[in-house]
Structures are given as C-alpha cells and as structure tokens.
Amino acid sequence: MALSASLGFPRMGARRELKRAIEAYWGKSISREALFAQTADLRKTRWLLQRDSGVDLIPSNDFSLYDHVLDTAVMVGAIPARFGWTGGDVDLDTYFAMARGGQVPAMEMTKWFDTNYHYIVPEFTSDQAFQLTSTKPLDEFREAQALGIQTVPVILGPITFLLLGKTKGADFNPLDLLPKLLPVYETLLQQLAEAGAKWVQLDEPCLALDRTEEELAIYQEVYTRLVNHTVLSISLTTYFAGLGNHLTAALNLPVSALHLDLVRAPEQVEQLLSLPQWPQDKYLSLGVIDGRNVWKNDLNYSLALLQRVAAWGAASDRIIVSPSCSLLHVPWDLDTEKALDAEVKDWLAFAKQKLAEMEILKTAVNDGVENVQTALDDNRAAVERRRTSTRIHNRLVNERLAGLTEDAYTRTSPFAARKSVQQARLQLKPFPTTTIGSFPQTKEVRKARADFRSGAQTKEQYEAFLRSKTEECVRLQESLGLDVLVHGEFERTDMVEYFGEQMDGFIFTKNGWVQSYGTRCVKPPIIYGDVSRPESMTVTWSSYAQSLSKRPMKGMLTGPVTILQWSFVRDDQPRETTCRQIALAIRDEVVDLEAAGIPIIQIDEPALREGLPLHRGEWEAYLKWAVDCFKLAASGVQDETQIHTHMCYAEFNDIMPAIQSMDADVISIETSRSDMELLDAFQQFSYQNDIGPGVYDIHSPRVPTVDEMVFLLEKTVDRLDPSQLWVNPDCGLKTRNEEETVKALEAMVEAANIARARYGQPLNA
Ligand SMILES: CN1c2c(nc(N)[nH]c2=O)NC[C@@H]1CNc1ccc(C(=O)N[C@@H](CCC(=O)N[C@@H](CCC(=O)N[C@@H](CCC(=O)O)C(=O)O)C(=O)O)C(=O)O)cc1
Ligand SMILES: N[C@@H](CCS)C(=O)O
Ligand SMILES: [Zn+2]
C-alpha cells in the first residue's frame, strides 16, 4: 500500500494560538506551565487533524517554540558560551535569549533557504563539544503516543545542521565536527527506538544544493553509520530543489526512504524513470503537492505522475504521497476564509486542504481511481475554471511591458554625477543618519486598525489617528537629530501586504498567516492575475509627512522582487513576468512620489538575495531579471532624486556584481548581528555607491550602547571610505516598543556624531 506523509505542519495554529501563548509568556502574563499546557493543546490539535485526514506518517518534533534549527542546536548542546550554560537541561529563558538576546546579544538569524522563514544560525567553535541535552523529540513522540498516535519524529539531519551553522574563531570546515556530533544523533535514535518509534524523518535539504563529490561521500559515510546504528527506518528528506546530478548518489544512501521535491524539480521523475531499476527496497516519497504555494493541486496530473512511477517500479507499495516540503510555509486552513472572493477561493488549498488532496491521491493509487472519481472530476473542473477565468489577464499591462525600451532600465547619469547633484540639493552632513522606515507598530496602532476594520472606528477617525502618529514620529526624529526622516509606516499592516492590497491582480486572506520568525507571522498576498496599480499608493502619507518638516523625507516603497518573493505567486506564467508587472506599478509610484516633491525614495529589496535559485547554475538568469525589475522600478526619476534600497538577512558576497548593477544611490544593509562581516564583500568588490551598514540589531529588545555602535562604525571605516557611509539600524523598527526605539536611536545619533568628529569630511557639494 502507498503511504502518505505530511513532512511537517504549520505551528502557529488556525488562529495563531502559539504566537499569543509565547508572547503572553514573554509579557509575563502567563506562567511557564500555562505555556506548556497551551502548546500541548496545539500539538494535539495538529496531530488529530492529520490523523483524521488519513495521513500515515504523521510528524512530531516539527513543532517549535521558536525555530527548529535553534531546537537542534540546543538539543546537541551547541550553546554559545556567552549564554552561560553549564550543562543539564537548557532553561526556557536561555532558549529564548539565544533567539532574542537578553544580557548578551542574540544569535544570528537568517533565511531558511529561499523561504521567508528565518532560522537561528548555530555557532560552532573548533573545540566544539556536543551532548544530548534535550528530550524534546522523545517527549513529543511520547505525547502523541499517549493520544494513541504513532508519529515520525522529524530531526534536522546532522550534515545540514552543521552546514547551516557558522564557525566562530578559527576558520574550519563545520563538517569536521561530524565525528563529535554523530554519537549524539545515535543516542537520540536509540532513545526514540526504545520509546517505540518505527520511522524517523531526517531533513537534509542541503543535499539538494550543489555538493562536491567529497561531500556526497560524507553523506554516504554518515548515513551508513546511522543506518547501521539504528533499528529505525530513516526517511531522508530533501526539498526546495532537485538532486540534479547527485540523484543516484542520494538513491544509493542506505536509508529506507528518500523524499524528492517534484514541484520544484519535476524533472526528477524522468531522471528516476531512466534508471535501470527501482532503488533497492527503498520507499520513494514523491512530493507532488506544492508545500510552498496555495494553489489547488491538479490531482489528475499528479495522479498520472504517481502512476507512472509506480508502474515503472511495479511498486505502488513503495510510494509515499507527500507535499513537496513541510507544510510549514502555507497557511493552516482555507475554510476559515469566509470573506474571500468565491471565484478565487475555488482555486486554492491551504495546509488542511492539502492533506485532503494527499488522501485522494493515495486512495486512487491504492484502491483505484473509481473510488475517488467524483473528487478527481471536481478537481479537474476547478483547475479548468481557473485556467479559463477572464479575471487573470490584462491586455494593457502586457502591451506596456512589451513596449519597454532599454532606457527604462537606466538612470540618466552615472552614480558620481548623481551624488553631487543630490548632495547639492540635500546638504547632508557626513555619516547621515536615517532609519529603515517603520516605527513601532504598537498595540495602539494595531488596535486602531482592527477597530477600523471591524467598523468600531470610521475611516476619518482612523486616518486622523494615523496622521497624529505620523506627526509624532516626525517630531521625534527631529528631536533625536536624525538627518533623513521617514513617515513611520503606521498605515501599513505589512510592507508587502499593504502594496498588494492596493494593486489589481492580488487578493488577501483574513487568516492566511505563515510563520516568519519566532512568533512573528506574515500574511502573504495571493497574486492570481496580471498586476497593475489603479492609483498612487503612498503619496498621500509621504507628502503629509514632508509637509511637517524641512528635513528631507524618504518615501518608502517595497521593491518588485520582494513583493513577488513574499507573496503566493501565480504558477501559470514565469515568475519573471509577474515581477516585471509589479516593477512597472512600483515605477509609477516612484515617479508620483518624485512629482510630489519627495527628494529621497527607498525601494526595499530585502528578499532579492532570498530569491536566488538554490543551484548556482540558475543564478545568472535570475539575477538578470531581478536586477532588471529593480532598475525598471527605480529608473524613472531625475538625477537629483536619491534612490535608496534596503536588504536584510543576507549574505552578499556572492551577489556583489548584481548589487552594484542595481545602482541604488544608497543601500542600507543588515550587518550588526554578524559584526560587520558582510561589509567585507563590499570592500573586496570596491563597491562605489553609498552604504548604510546597520549599526544595531532591531530584532532584539536589547538597547545597544553608544560604544558598541561606535565600535561597529570603526569597523566600517576600516573597510569603506567615510564619504560613502550612512548610519542606520539594520532593519525597520516596527517590532520594537517606543521606549526601546527612542533610547536606541538616541544612542545611534550620538555614535554617528562621534564617528563624524573622528572621520567626517564634509561631503563634496
Ligand atoms: C522585514 N520582514 C518582513 C518579511 N516578510 C514580510 N511580508 N514583511 C516583513 O516585514 N520577511 C522578513 C522580515 C520578517 N520580519 C517580520 C517582522 C515583523 C512581523 C510582524 O510583526 N508581524 C505581525 C503581523 C503584522 C500584521 O499584518 N499585522 C496586522 C494584523 C495585526 C493583528 O494581529 N491584529 C490582531 C488584533 C489587534 C488588536 O486588536 O490589538 C488580530 O488580528 O488578532 C495589522 O497590523 O493590522 C505579527 O504580529 O506577527 C513579521 C515579519
Ligand atoms: N521599510 C521596511 C523594511 C523592512 S525589511 C521597514 O522599515 O520595516
Ligand atoms: Zn529589513
């Protein structure tokens, strides 16, 4: 019999119960015991839902109070010395301090592959020791067992865990730590087997990235060792990319099951079918349901694919029907969307609906198509309704794109010439200070918006409130002595959702939350059709803010690549085409802001790096269109208008030529958690344009000291010319509270003044 596996389920709960529980614990309004009780309820709900949907291989330990990579680091005792851990169980508050900072800085956080999920980066020293410190996988397995549910513990595989980490102090290959790490995995597997587990899912997404022969040999060695050591059946899970040339090497690993992402890399099917025979006794987990998007699966297509693979191997009993990856990256349940446009809703499936899709496919494989004929026919009709809908295409948008010429992608003059006219206009001091855009989205702000949405506040009341917050924000920035001001982004729920809400071709959910990091969630808009901008989106707020101050106001926009990357994107045309459509809409907004007298416009592209394909061979093509889209958005203005961009959580080393070719006048980047290491790339590349390296970590509630920031600024002047430098936090301030924000910005301005006194040359007019 074919089986089904869900690989992982959203953690937050249908109503973001996890977020509320953890934030209540942080706010000291519930106890640790209450937090444990509430999270146990949530785990139970998830397991029951999956059991009742017919899933055979139900995951456990896919749940986390913050992040599963952090859980793994804690589990193996990789706890950086600064957290003062002396052995034994890791206290919950130490766990949260590792993620969020406390007395000492938090660990770094970065993107989980090409998703909008962020993980905490493990830190390894060359003398790193490991020990099993946590019983979390075992506890969750037993918890489910007590409910009568046999689960598959999900563990981050040892090789991916090490490859995702960062070495501290001496430079060494983290894989050198495997001999010390593997005994911990062996003990864990043994404990799970003793508790009654039969399967364990070891996630090794790094196996699907470009890997050397030497690394593939390490995979072979490690998995041979683990398999020999355990009675558990190991399911090795790859996702987000195809295995490419090392599919055979992966199939030769002595594990019981190998999972393939057939949505991202459908060509793996042909690769498989060209093999002489079914790989030994292996189960193949075929990821045919998109775990990264919200479109209803074309079940007839997927079934044909499953049947081809089964027929090839005469092995329907060796197939596991699964999503392409964990369902962590899609919202919980479409059924809660009562207000969603009915036509588009009919095209969608969230996590719960994807479980039902898996069940239909599994039943068709096991019991014959006739047992699910109605479901398959209904699905075929829905897929056809979407394909032929008149709401998808907009002739004007496509004609405009087709008519673009080269000059739409280039500023009038080169950077040096622009810099001097901009300086003549802006008269900025050396080391100009600014922020990344958002100011605290306090409870008060969110409540006002919720009241407006529920009808408890009128539009006039809500807008008056937003104006008062904006004015307060402008006055605060003036009094702090910031040089380039922002309006604070109080009117925005989210930097992507806000723009999507105002463009055609998008729809919105009420509850389609997806975890971004820790308790923070995003509600990605859904792009279902051609994108256009009916009217200006930000001009009113930026103009209002500029009218309040003589200092330059920075208009704030989200860039096309980021809007694309953080939305659920239509899958019926290339992503590039959708991105170019968004770029045109943003270009119109940039031009409107300029016409309204806004002298500086920031086009945020924090997701540009995240969108890089996981295989290097595909980078060039992606970077070409991604940079084109940014330039299309940015190049409609005169030389005297200063274009900024902002990026966070990214390694820039390998995309420097692309960043330079974006040709933004100023780029602000996240660097503080990595001690300005990222600037090395800018230095090595002799980056020409201006840079604002983030001088403090906004994700931590900890207020940075002046000295710390001066120290970081000194590192920047070691690497870059002082006349290139701006001073800013490393991302927007929306998650911070007002008190933290004021104190941190006060210190930042003081640090900038110190840098100015030490290194500042007047900027050339
Ligand atoms: C910069 N980042 C972003 C990413 N992706 C995005 N799409 N947007 C980003 O900004 N990726 C990389 C990083 C990730 N960083 C963050 C930072 C902060 C958040 C965040 O704060 N998320 C909020 C939700 C934001 C939102 O949409 N809020 C709405 C709804 C608020 C709400 O929950 N309302 C309550 C009622 C409120 C009341 O009555 O008090 C409710 O519905 O129950 C809004 O502002 O209106 C979060 O809380 O998780 C995300 C990613
Ligand atoms: N302008 C946005 C960028 C976040 S990446 C903000 O300040 O929140
Ligand atoms: Zn940012």
Automatic annotation (TrEMBL):
**Which prosthetic group or cofactor does it need?**
Zn(2+)
Where is Zn(2+) bound in this sequence?
H646, C648, E670, C731
Q: What is this protein called?
A: 5-methyltetrahydropteroyltriglutamate--homocysteine methyltransferase
Q: Does the keyword Aminoacyl-tRNA synthetase apply?
A: no
Residues binding 5-methyltetrahydropteroyltri-L-glutamate, per UniProt: R16, E17, L18, K19, K111, R520, C521, W566, E610
This protein's species is Alicyclobacillus fodiniaquatilis
The EC number on file is 2.1.1.14
- SUPFAM superfamilies reported in the protein's UniProt record: UROD/MetE-like
Function, as annotated, reads: Catalyzes the transfer of a methyl group from 5-methyltetrahydrofolate to homocysteine resulting in methionine formation.
Residues that, per the record, bind L-methionine: I436, G437, S438, E489, D604
Superkingdom assignment: Bacteria
Catalysed reactions, semicolon-separated: 5-methyltetrahydropteroyltri-L-glutamate + L-homocysteine = tetrahydropteroyltri-L-glutamate + L-methionine
